[in-house]
Design brief:
alpha+beta; 4-stranded antiparallel β-sheet; 7 helices; globular; DNA-binding
Length: 274
DNA sequence: AACGCGCCCTGTCCGC
DNA sequence: TGCGGACAGGGCGCGT
């Protein structure tokens, strides 16, 4: 997907554009992106006439906050994109699954070629449950080296896979997991519990560093990602290892290796990462 | 019960 | 130009 930096970029774009706007209708073209028990009818009924009170993020989830403490939670999957209709260039968004019409004539478009994304409409209670199922926010003060270490100590999975598990740390996906492991000098295959205290400390710093830099660059466009203005992210050229198999390591010049861990690519420098 | 795997679906790219 | 296979920022449900 869109990982944390891409979701954050979308949220920052949407917030000033949508806060205070009122949704007047919801049209669903692909009902399979609605998270059960949400249906087109329930979505329309739930959002119609409601004012947008804010836009926020939890992990990779974009949250459109509505009057009466309702939350429209948008998980973008691999190819999900949220744009406002005034920003969407004609012809570029050909897989619009949901359209939320606004009172002022604009609309919020949810476009998703692969339809792996999911929309959920949360009450305060159901949101509390969902929120509790997600792990630490890596950019928050709660993401301390001590907590991070306590979580890694009890898992035998390869650290790359560990980083992708949203129940432990929320928002990290395959690109930034690989980039952070490179910056920390840790091989993707290392079992989480074998990381030393120093490595966990470095990995924490690396994660925060790469996420902050990626947000500053407005995210990474690998192929389909666009921000809420319809623009590509600028972080791709800054990637050190992701999608760089065979290319020289930016630190030592060794060839970057690609391996497969649980059916997903991992990239690393065989010299710099141990 | 933690973990790996297959699968969801469409688009793109590469080799033949 | 066409076709098959591999691959793609994710995550759920299943079996072990």
């Amino acid at each position: 997907m869109p990982e944390l930096p891409e979701a954050e970029t979308i949220v920052r774009d949407l917030r000033p554009r949508l806060t205070g706007a009122t949704i007047v209708d919801a049209r669903v073209r692909h009902a399979d992106i609605l998270n059960p028990p949400l249906t087109p009818r329930r979505l329309a009924h739930g959002v119609r006439g409601r004012r947008i009170s804010g836009v926020s993020r939890r992990g990779k989830i974009v949250i459109i906050e509505l009057q009466h403490d309702l939350r429209l939670a948008i998980n973008l999957g691999m190819s999900g994109r949220v744009v406002t209709s005034d920003a969407a260039r004609a012809g570029e968004f050909r897989h619009i699954a949901v359209t939320l019409a606004l009172e002022d004539g604009r609309a919020i478009l949810y476009d998703d070629a692969r339809r792996f994304g999911r929309l959920a409409l949360h009450t305060p209670l159901s949101w509390r449950v969902r929120d509790a199922s997600l792990g630490l926010e890596p950019l928050s003060n709660e993401f301390t080296a001590e907590r991070f270490r306590a979580l890694t100590r009890v898992s035998a999975v390869p650290i790359r896979n560990w980083l992708l598990d949203q129940r432990r740390v929320a928002g990290v996906g395959n690109i930034y997991a690989n980039e952070a492991l490179f910056l920390a000098g840790v091989r993707p295959t290392r079992r989480a519990r074998t990381l030393t205290r120093a490595e966990v400390g470095r990995l924490r710093e690396a994660l925060r560093n790469v996420l902050v830099r990626a947000i500053a660059a407005r995210g990474t466009t690998f192929s389909l990602y666009r921000d809420a203005s319809g623009e590509e992210g600028g972080f791709y050229p800054a990637l050190a290892v992701y999608d760089r198999a065979g290319q020289p390591c930016p630190r030592c010049g060794s060839g970057i290796k690609r391996i497969v861990l649980t059916n997903r690519s991992a990239f690393y420098c065989p010299t710099c990462q141990r």
